[in-house]
Write a structure and sequence with these properties.
Blueprint (H helix, E strand, L loop, with lengths): L7 H19 L3 H11 L2 E3 L2 E4 L4 E2 L12 E5 L2 E6 L2 E9 L4 E6 L31 E4 L10 E5 L7 E5 L2
Parallel strand pairs: 3-4
Antiparallel strand pairs: 1-2, 4-5, 5-6, 6-7, 8-10, 9-10
GO cellular component, one term: membrane
Subcellular location: Membrane
Pfam family, one: GUB_WAK_bind
Length: about 170
């Protein structure tokens, strides 16, 4: 049986096609390298400087970092939105991996018209053995029996009288 002979031009064209196809599929795209560069850039957010992963902000692409750690800056206050609740970031120490948050809806009023649970899921946050659940009512009626309330006088924000509900 005679061997099939391909004209050299066709053989070279096929070889060149497969070489180019293999090379272009193995090279990183500009979009991927640009995204990696943008995600790796540090940023400032109010008083917090040179922040990096896992934090991101609104100047970074949406797919950089974890959504729970996307900071926004509103009225001179850094904020995080977690499970549709906004929190003001009061302290942030990336080296110690700690932060102090305050619910934005409770910042100017301690008796909201609508009560919302603010449980932080452990997926992005770790609690220590020092953490306990505590509900605090300041200057408003909790609607609970007095036997469940422990009264105290708190020297907070101009001597506000408050009550703690433990549970």
């Amino acid at each position: 049986m005679p061997a099939i002979a391909f004209p050299p031009a066709i053989f070279v064209s096929v070889l060149l096609f497969f070489s180019v196809a293999a090379t272009t599929t193995s090279l990183p795209s500009d979009d991927t390298s640009t995204l990696s560069f943008k995600c790796a850039q540090t940023f400032d957010c109010g008083p917090f400087k040179n922040l990096s992963n896992p934090f991101t902000d609104t100047t970074h692409p949406e797919n950089c970092g974890t959504p729970e750690f996307r900071l926004s800056y509103d009225n001179d206050s850094p904020k995080l939105t977690i499970a549709s609740l906004s929190y003001q970031v009061l302290l942030l120490d990336q080296a110690a991996r700690t932060m102090t948050l305050a619910r934005s809806d409770l910042w100017n009023t301690t008796c909201p018209k609508q009560y919302t649970n603010s449980t932080l899921e452990p997926s992005g946050f770790t609690y220590t053995t020092d953490n306990e659940d505590l509900t605090i009512f300041f200057g408003c009626s909790s609607g609970l029996p007095a036997t469940l309330l422990i009264g105290f006088i708190a020297v907070l924000f101009e001597n506000v009288r408050g009550e703690i509900l433990v549970g």
